[in-house]
């Protein structure tokens, strides 16, 4: 009986270790896929930009972007939850008229965000026209904006629009402090589909001047 119990415990432990290893392998595979998608997206946007460059005075290689991460709370609504993750962002200051120019926030959705989110697109054309800074925030749990164990089932509860809105609030505060902006500085949000909904909710449900 004791031998059977030990055998059962051993098999259970082996199964748990195999499951944990499989989860880690899956996470590494997902990161590899995300990197491949990001590189492909960058190549596609660069090709489109090069085709358009003959009609635009600004060339892609003349634009300098900044990339960084902001530590975000995994759960904004539970102060006892101490875990954080690094959320990736990009900044393009090329067209910004300091210090009063508006901030254009491009909101990431259900995919990897690339640096081209701040150098290409209609919102960037508008930024050039209105002398705005363009910033972009990658959505939590996409791209590299993921805590190491984020794919565990128990952590998926933190993948929600409410948490994403709180990420945007924290990011706005971060940029405001980084560039010493006014509390009532003008922010304009851009997004399509789900990020478009986040942009609307950010304006309607969060106390910001946007």
From TrEMBL:
Q: Which key words tag this protein in UniProt?
A: Glycoprotein, Hydrolase, Protease, Signal
Which Pfam families does the UniProt entry name for this protein? Answer: Peptidase_S28 (PF05577)
Can you name this protein? Thymus-specific serine protease-like
Q: Which GO terms describe its molecular function?
A: dipeptidyl-peptidase activity; serine-type exopeptidase activity
Against InterPro entries, the record matches this protein to: AB_hydrolase_fold (IPR029058), Peptidase_S28 (IPR008758)
Family the UniProt entry places it in: Belongs to the peptidase S28 family.
Read off the lineage from the record: Eukaryota, Metazoa, Chordata, Craniata, Vertebrata
**Gene Ontology CC annotations of this record:** endosome; lysosome
Position of the signal peptide: 1-22
A GO BP term here is: proteolysis
